[in-house]
Design brief:
The protein is of the alpha/beta class. Helices cover 27% and strands 21% of the residues. The protein is built from 17 helices and 24 strands. The strands form 6 sheets. The chain has a 5-stranded parallel sheet with strand order 7-6-5-8-9. Helix 6 packs antiparallel against helix 7 and helix 15 packs antiparallel against helix 17.
Amino acid sequence: TILDVTYSNTYVDLTVDAPDYGTQFHYRFLRCGCPVPEPATSAALIQIPPASIFVDSSPVLAMLTSELALASRITAIATADYVVAPVIHDRIALGLVAQTGDLAGLVNESVIPQATRPTLAIVDTYYAVIGFPSNFSVLTRDEVAYFANGDSSEQTPLGRAEYIKIYGLLFNQLAAAENIFQDIVQGYEDAKTAAFTATRRPSVLTNEIFFGSWFTTDGNSYAMQLLRDANADYRLSTETSGRGLNSSEVEELFGSAFYWINSPVHTTVRELVEGDPTDGKVYKDLESVQCGNVWHNAKVRPPSGLGTDYFESGAVRPDRVLRDLVQLLHPNVYANSTRELFYYAQLAPDASLACPRNELPATPPADEYFTTVEYRVDGANRFLLEDNHPAITDSLSTNSNVPSSNLELFFERHNETGNYAILQTRYMTSQSAAASLLAAVPAMTAGLQDLLTNAVAPDATVKLNSEPVSGAPPQEEGSSGLSSGAIAGICIGVIAGVAMIVAGVNYWSYQRGLKAGLEGYETPGVGKGEA
């Protein structure tokens, strides 16, 4: 997190907070050619813009290459194994970017001659504080100036992306960085708005088995914020720290989840099931697997096959990540879009696995009608109901006299603070059968109440949440023709040549706890590209 940013005529003072490590880093960015100001400061002095840099962060590489077009300033990285950006691989092939192997390689003459050593290193706060086998200062003998990059401590997608402003400031590209960030926020808000036009809110399973445990997604995390903004439900969303589950716990808690997001990387579901490392081989028993709703985030990978662009440009472009999630979780929202996903790929379903769920078409066939009956169930949350969806479907089918194959259940978003659920049931019938169905609603409701009381949640109460609707297909979800979402809290620095003028704006509006009055500046005539 960036704190305490203060502008003077020729320099900028700022603090990088590293809350995960209980420390802070203080910096003074001084314009190249300007005298060192008096009185002296304990802040680390960085001449800007730096002539050459070492980068050990995939998101920073994406900011500098694909967004700010500053690849020529990058002269060293640790390794290209996890790097997707083609321009970096091209520059390595031309001998313009060195690979140090580790941080100590920066001061190894056989790796990088001192005359060509980068003037600044950009390293994650972990390496600045702890590192392995020691921190950056120790490994480089304090011979290389460094900037501690704290974007990984940000717990919101836009908070991480907002770091592009720091690198705009560092390279005299602040106006370009601000414009890019504005576009990111606009795209993110548009995708979020589209997500919440969807009636269905699917439940999701995330992650995979890792060293014997399946780690849950922290309810306060970056990843959870993306899921919330994509209008998805995660069963443990209120837990404020992740934990490891065994395979039986995963099956119990997430066996009925409709989608599996960020799965292991495979081409097909069959490959996934055949490679199941869990005790009890639970993959085949997960409904997301049975229904073929399994997606990994490694669509674009580096030549080594290690890493993924999701963790490189995806950290800089959360608007694209969110749009991907909305497209795959709510396919009807962008039904007319031809946009390809940036980061996610679906594992090909396995036809030999039977999906226990019904999904009706977005619109009924000719001469067929949809009837929607919506219930409020107090005393039971959507996950408990979803776990019991086969029994609920059978009860409603029996009492409505509609085949279960023509009946679909789905849920509105889970209420994280109240123990109730909004259950929507949709039936596809002929026009004449629709009239009979409406007459059967009291019996359907009574049957659902009996089922829940006797077999699911003894204290649950069921009531109609709205009048049943029958006839033309409801316009339940949006389309790609959305109006632009409003952008709240985004403030633009004032451009004033080489001078820095107090603007008094809320600048770092998406980073944790920061509302600072700041001034902006930019080099005249410099647009997106090299300073």
